[in-house]
């Protein structure tokens, strides 16, 4: 098993959106958190199958919100 970090946001339409850090273009959305996690796992599997690449496992430090 490999661990991936994801960022979860809520869109204007209320859907939850996940983006997989470290896999460019790997993202999905769902109405509920449980469904989002399920779909994110599926998206990761599909991205890994399609790319056939090994992605570096960076050490997760954290997320910071800043205003500009």
Can you lay out the helices and strands and say which pair or pack?
Layout: E1 6-10, E2 16-20, E3 27-30, H1 33-51
Short characterization:
By secondary structure, the chain is an alpha+beta fold. The protein contains one helix and three strands, in the order E-E-E-H. It is globular, with a radius of gyration of 13 Å.
Protein architecture, described:
The protein has a domain at about 5-50: 2-Layer Sandwich (Double Stranded RNA Binding Domain). The mean pLDDT is about 90. Strands 1-2-3 form a three-stranded antiparallel sheet, with helices on one face. With about 70 residues, it is α+β, with helices and mostly antiparallel strands. It has one helix at about 35-50, and strands at about 5-10, 15-20, 25-30. Helix content is about 30%, strand content about 20%. It contains one helix and three strands, in the order βββα.
């Amino acid at each position: 098993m490999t661990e991936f970090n994801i960022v979860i946001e809520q869109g204007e339409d209320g859907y939850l959106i996940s983006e997989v850090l470290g896999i460019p273009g790997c993202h999905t959305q769902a109405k509920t958190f449980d469904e989002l996690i399920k779909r994110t796992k599926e998206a990761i599997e599909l991205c890994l199958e399609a790319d056939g690449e090994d992605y570096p496992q960076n050490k997760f430090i954290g997320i910071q919100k800043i205003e500009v």
